User: What shape does this take?
Amino acid sequence: MRIEFERSGGVAGLRLSLSIDTDTLPEAEAEEIEKLVEASGFFEMPERTGTPSGADAFVYRVKVESAERAHTVTTSDIDAPSELSPLLERLERLARRARRE
Assistant: This one.
C-alpha cells in the first residue's frame, strides 16, 4: 500500500509531508497502518469532508493506493471524520519522525 500524506496550514503555515510504501516498513508497523486505513473506511469517504475554516486550521490531504484501488481524501482538523483521526495522527507521527532522520 502506498500512502501520500500532507498537512498544511495552521498558525505558522508549516507543511508536513510523507510518502511511504508499507512494503518498506517493518511488518508490525505496516499492518497497523493498513488496519487504520481499513478501520477508517477510507476508500468509502468522500474526496472532501467539510471546508477548512479559520486561519489556524490544518488541512490534510491523504492519498492511498493499493493493488485494487486508489483514493484521495482532503479534510481539516476541524472537519475530519472521527474514524479518520487515528490514521491522521499515525501518519503525522511518521512524517515528524522522517523529518528528524
Notes: Residues 2-100 form one domain. The two ends are 22 Å apart (CA to CA). The chain is about 30% helix and 30% strand.
